[in-house]
Design brief:
Radius of gyration: 24 Å
Number of strands: 22
Helix content: 25-40%
Oligomer: single chain
Strand content: 15-25%
Structural class: alpha/beta
Number of helices: 19
């Protein structure tokens, strides 16, 4: 939307736009009107454009700076607001939200929840019932199957969490990026977003569902489409391989300077673009490329491959943590791999020590009680109608005030068959280090325990699909020593092979993991390979594909 103003003294025309960030701003120059999202102006105009828009982010940058001093107060304010908003819902009346006086009452009244616990309520919401978990009408649901089974979960995407969490996270991501990169030309070119492996589909006449990325794209302000590629009809295509081809055909001639998506799937797209153009580097196709906003899986196993395909010292990488349940963190310091916990998104955080996950009465800690260096399972209460919901992700804090963390894995995505407590972040870092030392490139991997009952011992079996093979598998077996350096529990179990024998590496033939995802109907979007598992289900399935 826009309004036209005239300055009678200078006869200048000014346009007031409503941006896709929900902020209104002016832009005029030299008695000429510039389209705020135009990509065909000269570079000087675009420099002015990006610099001008950057001013709009400064108030928010100051608010984020308060996280270092006011985290506890901000978090308790979120809880109070959530309880007040939902006190007259069916859930709020059941748990007597009106009489809750503080965090202690909250813990006492509301038990920890899993999806199975809230599923009956969600089903009623999908069928059109109102005021169940959240007072507003909920017409959109993020469909998630997780990484460990094919069961679909439908997570409410309320108008409040859509605007005040997911889209606010997108705004803050750009805000922090521009703060860290004042010379950016971010608004001078297009941004390519890769997501939405399935287009939104109706659950019934009352509700629609889709991958979170598809739901977000479906509800974006139309002005965003002026700076985003590809067209919505392409990005929301169902069939993954056809979609990749359509994206390449529609964007390879476009001036693209930013990418957003899951690292593994974006790599597939980049290689398709290079194949189409016959180019060796992505900067040959898109010379103004400057940033990749990534999330969903660890970037570490892919970092070197991206640097090889985008050999530019102007290229930046910024991680975000935007799950189906909410937007929780972003990388505010490019020199650190930690993420800043976003504490004012109408999300209240709690944490369970990893060794107590699954217990009937685990210790549950508010943010103010967590410690650096310990692994926790994350529990969230959100404006999406989730109350003390166990999201299934594990995190480890690297600093407090401000609270920064790394995603260490999933509560069902680790190996602890022999007391080694091997987490996904250990595995990702080890793979990355060994690749650098051996010159190998890993495309995908998974690992599981292998029990050797005759010896009352066991080992870890790794199935790895290489993009580039190491000089020899013996060289890559350095992975075992590297894991010991990163994980003291693993090191202790490997000491004199008391419990664990040296790991075993099996090379997967090309396309094995892709075929596994295809058979599961999980190509593209937010779907990912389960890196670690405490049982052999996935690795056995992959083995059969590899052998076939």
């Amino acid at each position: 939307s826009w309004r036209l103003f005239r300055d009678s003294r200078h006869q200048r025309k000014e346009y007031l736009f409503s941006s896709f960030f929900g902020i209104k701003y002016l832009l005029y120059k030299d008695n000429k009107i510039y389209r705020i999202f135009a990509c065909n102006s000269n570079n000087r105009s675009m420099d002015i454009l990006t610099n001008t828009i950057s001013l709009l982010f400064r108030p928010r940058q100051k608010e984020i700076a308060r996280f270092a001093q006011d985290a506890d107060a901000i978090q308790h304010k979120q809880l109070k607001s959530l309880l007040s908003t939902a006190r007259n819902t069916e859930w709020g009346l059941k748990h007597d939200y009106k009489s809750i006086q503080g965090y202690a009452d909250f813990c006492e009244r509301i038990p920890l929840q899993t999806y199975d616990d809230i599923k009956p309520y969600v089903t009623r919401m999908i069928n059109g019932e109102r005021n169940i978990l959240w007072p507003s009408v909920v017409r959109w649901y993020a469909k998630s199957s997780g990484t460990t089974n094919d069961k679909s979960k439908f997570l409410p995407v309320t108008p409040e969490i859509l605007k005040g969490c997911h889209y606010k996270g997108g705004f803050d991501t750009v805000s922090i990026y521009l703060q860290n990169n004042p010379d950016s030309h971010f608004f001078a070119s297009k941004g390519l977003i890769l997501g939405g492996s399935h287009s939104p589909s109706p659950l019934n006449r009352n509700a629609h569902c889709g991958d979170l990325s598809a739901v977000l794209l479906q509800n974006l302000n139309p002005l965003v489409n002026l700076i985003r590629v590809p067209d919505k009809k392409i990005i929301l295509m169902d069939e993954w391989e056809s979609k990749i081809k359509a994206i390449v055909e529609s964007t390879w001639k476009t001036d693209v300077n930013s990418l957003s998506g899951v690292p593994s799937w974006m790599l597939v797209l980049i290689k398709a673009v290079l194949q189409k153009t016959g180019s060796e580097y992505l900067t040959d196709v898109w010379p103004n490329m400057e940033v990749f906003f990534h999330g969903g899986i660890s970037f570490e196993p892919y970092r070197d491959q991206y640097k090889a395909l985008i050999p530019s010292d102007r290229m930046h990488y910024m991680e975000t943590y935007n799950a189906s349940e909410g937007f929780f963190g972003l990388q505010d310091n490019p020199e650190e791999h930690s993420l800043l916990l976003m504490i004012d998104y109408s999300v209240f955080y709690e944490f369970i020590p990893i060794n107590e996950v699954g217990e009937e009465h685990p210790t549950v800690l508010p943010l103010e009680a967590v410690e650096v260096g310990k692994n926790y399972a994350m529990v969230i209460t959100t404006s999406g109608g989730l109350w003390r919901y166990q999201i299934g992700d594990t995190v480890r804090f690297t600093s407090l005030y401000p609270h920064k963390f790394v995603i260490s894995g999933r509560t069902k995505n680790f190996i602890n068959a022999f007391g080694e407590e091997l987490m996904v972040d250990n595995a990702d870092k080890a793979i990355s280090r060994v690749c650098r030392q051996t010159g190998a490139k890993v495309k995908e991997y998974t690992a599981a325990p292998l029990f050797m009952l005759d010896k009352a011992k066991g080992r870890h079996q790794w199935m790895i699909e290489f993009e580039k093979m190491p000089p020899s598998l013996d060289d890559f077996a350095l992975l075992d020593k590297t894991l010991q350096q990163l994980n003291s529990d693993y090191e202790a179990k490997r000491y004199k092979e008391i419990s664990l024998q040296p790991l075993e590496i099996r090379v997967a033939r090309e396309g094995t993991f892709y075929e596994w995802l295809r058979r599961k109907g999980k190509l593209g979007g937010q779907h990912k390979i389960p890196r670690l598992s405490n049982d052999r289900t996935f690795i056995e399935e992959l083995g059969k594909i590899c052998d076939s």
